[in-house]
Amino acid sequence: MSQDQIAVTGKPAVPVARPASATGAGFGAFVRRHQIVEHIVLLFGVLLMMGPIAVAFTTSTHDPVTIHSEGMQLGFGDNFLPTYEAVIFEQTGFTKQVTGWGMSLNSLILGLGFAIGKIIVSMLAAYAIVYFRFPLGTLCFWVIFSTLLLPLEVRILPSYEVVQGLGLLNSYTGLILPLIASATGTFFFRQFFKSVPNELLEAARIDGAGPFRFFWDILVPLSRTMIAAIFIIMFVVGWNQYLWPILMTTDESFYTVVRGIRQILQVWIGADIPDYNEALGLAIIAMIPPVLIVIIFQRMFIKGLVESEK
Amino acid sequence: MTTLEIKQAVKRYPNGALAVKGVDVTVEEGELVVFVGPSGCGKSTLLRMVAGLESVTEGEIVLDGRLVNEVEPANRNIAMVFQNYALYPHMTVYRNLAYGLKNRGTPKAEIDAKVREAAKLLQIGDFLERKPSQLSGGQRQRVAMGRAIVRDPAIFLFDEPLSNLDAKLRNQMRLEIKRLQRRLGTAAIYVTHDQVEAMTLADRIVVLNNGEIEQIGAPAEVYGAPASTFVASFIGAPPMNLLEAQTGDGAIVIGETRIAAPVHANGPITLGIRPERAHLANGSGGADGPPMQVDTVEELGAVRLIHGSVGGQHFTANQSADEPIPGDQVRLRLLPDDLHLFDHGTGRRL
């Protein structure tokens, strides 16, 4: 999702940068024709990406019976308010302990905890690896890096065992803490720190900045754009977690939005029609925060790139 | 009073490489000493040892009478200007200047006064709220110097501070650095590989080669009486001509020409002659030096460079542009005082 967003909004900057006035009308026409082709390609991409979402949204404004009998709807129905009211505020689930609002909060806590935790841990790890000489430092890095070969799904049972052993099942800590070590983040920050000129460290040393000050006063501000990029990725990953919360929490008050979507489609009595409209509505709501995060941080991200600080 | 004493400093890297091989240098109060040499000669390493950015393997660094071998850079009372300026890119010019003072716990009012004073001195007062990325190369250079000045150090350390600037700006900043250093009266070490910078800036030049000192002296001394063939060929542009020659019976023999030797020598030597001291005589009037075969003439405006060979060895002579362009064959007129004799084996001055 994040990459598509960047591609779509990043594009208009290109025609502006072209020296269109410099080489006469022929070149101008050439550029214009190219712009038209470019825009057609872009519009096609937008249609491809946004079409299903638009249909999901329009369908969610119909009642479940219509959806069940007639399939997906392209036009708006008259059920918008009741659907979204129910999705957000109605107690759902088997135990009726959680609302759509509550699930969104849980997802938010998971996404933020994930993103912030990973950034803090991986920045500190990369700082240690790049700036401190300690025995087996390089080996440590490669061990961390090799954990990329072991995705969560592979190590989910031992992870469960550990969380269970610590008595952290059914808690936010249990949901977030075991996952905040990030090889990807450590790797990105390591590469970034290595590109920071060594003289900056030396100037800071002469200016009397110790290891903590250097990290806080120099490295963290310089990493702004990296932090924003990793925050986007990690927040979306955290928000979209499905398998992990299913295993770590059984209490419905810890339900996340992604689990909630599936929950709605669960029918307790055989003859009931699942609330398709509510499931689609929840899916739409589930999409909003990640999209917002991407849009907000993308501005910072691009601003950081354009400002080009050495 | 002596500001800095480097005594028998040695730098050995963990892999055994010797970067600095036992060097003695002193810097007097208010003096500007230039370390010059080709890349890899150890000049930057030596400077970084003074700054505390490199550890000292052996020997002593004494700053203002205090042994500072084990003292952190921040507590050494030094200030350094880096080649790429090393300004903090996310901080405004003001905060760049203030950062070191802030870390020392200087009161805010005092920081402000010092920063504004330095900014005024360097004429960067209008840029205090800008970020380094919004400044030109010359302005960044000033900010880097400002950061050094506000620390009010015992000694300034410049590590090739002008090599990122274009030629015109470099000449201008060179002059400015010299003026500033004079005005502040603070001792300074200036590292460069550019012999013109060394000649123009220095009170004393330290010529380094291969981790060892070749010569220490005032610019005129180093230029006028180079201690070795290395110094002779490194200082001065175009470099001094070095000819293989024989000596004996108080005379120097180049090819078939004999000229009187200014010092006693016997056997093979290396003869050094500055291009501007090799006078050309068209025809044979009054010239008793060796003949020179001319092959290329370079016009530089005020002077002309005549390239060719003497006794089969490459030779360059300077000529004023007023003089006529020589033919293919000229004779050199050499004065005894302009001849530099070096030992053939060691390259040391005889």
CATH top level class name of the largest domain in chain A: Mainly Alpha
Number of domains of chain A: 2
The dominant shape of chain A is flat
Radius of gyration of chain A: 24 Å
Uncertain segments of chain A are 1-22
The helix/strand series of chain B, from N terminus to C terminus, equals EEEHEEEHHHEHEHEEHHEEEEEEEEEE
Q: Supply the number of structural domains of chain B.
A: 2
The overall pLDDT of chain B, averaged over residues, is 90
How many extended strands of chain B?
A: 20
CATH architecture of the largest domain in chain A: Orthogonal Bundle
Describe this structure in words.
The complex is a heterodimer of chains A (310) and B (350). Chain A is mainly α and 310 residues long. Chain A has two domains: 2-86; 100-266, MetI-like (MetI-like fold, Orthogonal Bundle), CATH 1.10.3720. Chain A is built from 16 helices and no strands. In chain A, helix 5 crosses helix 16 (276-307), helix 6 packs across helix 10 (183-195) and helix 13 runs antiparallel to helix 16. Chain B is built from eight helices and 20 strands. Chain B has a six-stranded mixed β-sheet with strand order 6-7-8-3-9-10, sandwiched between helices. In chain B, helix 2 packs across helix 3 (108-122), helix 2 runs parallel beside helix 4 and helix 3 (108-122) crosses helix 4 (137-150). Classes of the chains: A mainly alpha (310), B alpha+beta (350). Chain A binds chain B through residues 197, 199-200, 202-209, 213, 217-218, 221-222, 224, 307-310, and chain B through 51-53, 72-75, 78-80, 82-84, 86-91, 99-100, 103-104, 131-133, 147.
